[in-house]
Amino acid sequence: MITYIIIDDEHIAHDIIKGYCDLLPNLEFKANCYDAIEAIDYLSKHDIDLIFLDLNMPKLKGFQFLKTLSSPPNVIVTTAYSEFAIEGYELNVVDYLLKPFSFERFLSAVNKVPSPSTSPIGKDHKETIKPEGKQIFLKQNNSYIQVDIDSILFIEASGNYTKVVTSTTTISIREKISDTIELLFDNDFIQVHKSFAVAKKHIVSIKGNRIFIGDYMVPIGKLYKANINQLLK
């Protein structure tokens, strides 16, 4: 579970964000904070994984607040001001959402949040543990399907859609293959053809210009042989 708090001076913003989060089973609500001072007090007493952060708040602005944190959690900015986006990414925010944002855009941001990988042991010690498998939500038609990234074998461009082939099913999403690779954390996936990217961990064998993954065969494009050569080093 990803624990989160909402920091925003507008009550309606809290209602919208929490309403979206309530649709996602991997998010656990912890607190509403209506200004940065309240948030600083809460964070001094609790560990959380994610902040939904507004920028234009009284007393202390969002990024000013963020700079006061020595080890900030993941942050998704939620604001009506686009001009601060560059500063946000310089501060390593996960995503920058412009109000009003749709559930689909919100979902795209949440899918970028890494799963928690550490667990506090005692007061000052943390023991690294193996994180649970990373899940994302993919939209197929009018349904949102939760998928374990570790189960994805490969993805295939198909017209205006991308097919996501897992060990148990195939899901078609209305996304470009390049955007889908980014969504799936491209360090785990390698593009081997203009229409295919494969999960490195699921490659069984490579023979000539073909990659074998389970019962599937994926072609290797001429322009992508360098990617394969790099993988084999």
How would you sum up this structure, described in words?
The protein is an alpha/beta fold. The chain contains seven helices and 17 strands. Residues 118-132 have low confidence and may be disordered. The protein is elongated, with a radius of gyration of 20 Å. Strand 16 and strand 17 form a beta hairpin. The strands form five sheets. Strands 2-1-3-4-5 form a five-stranded parallel beta sheet. Strands 12-11-10-14-13 form a five-stranded antiparallel beta sheet. The protein has a three-stranded antiparallel beta sheet with strand order 15-16-17, with no helix packed on it. 23% of the residues lie in helices and 36% in strands.
Secondary-structure blueprint:
Blueprint: E1 2-7, H1 11-21, E2 27-33, H2 36-43, E3 50-53, H3 62-67, E4 74-79, H4 85-90, E5 95-98, H5 103-110, E6 118-121, E7 125-128, E8 135-140, E9 143-148, E10 152-158, E11 161-166, E12 170-173, H6 177-183, E13 189-193, E14 196-199, E15 205-207, E16 210-213, E17 216-219, H7 225-232
Parallel strand pairs: 1-2, 1-3, 3-4, 4-5
Antiparallel strand pairs: 6-7, 8-9, 10-11, 10-14, 11-12, 13-14, 15-16, 16-17
Note the beta-strand portion. Answer: 35-45%
Class inferred from helices and paired strands: alpha/beta
Mean pLDDT comes to 85
Order of helical and strand elements = EHEHEHEHEHEEEEEEEHEEEEEH
Name the poorly predicted regions: 118-132
Strand order within the widest beta sheet: 2-1-3-4-5
> What radius of gyration results from the CA coordinates?
20 Å
Question: How would the global form be characterised?
Answer: elongated
The largest pleated sheet is described as: 5 strands, parallel
* Straight-line distance between termini: 37 Å
Enumerate how many helices there are, as a single number. 7
Structure summary, number of beta strands: 17
* Helical coverage, percent range: 10-25%
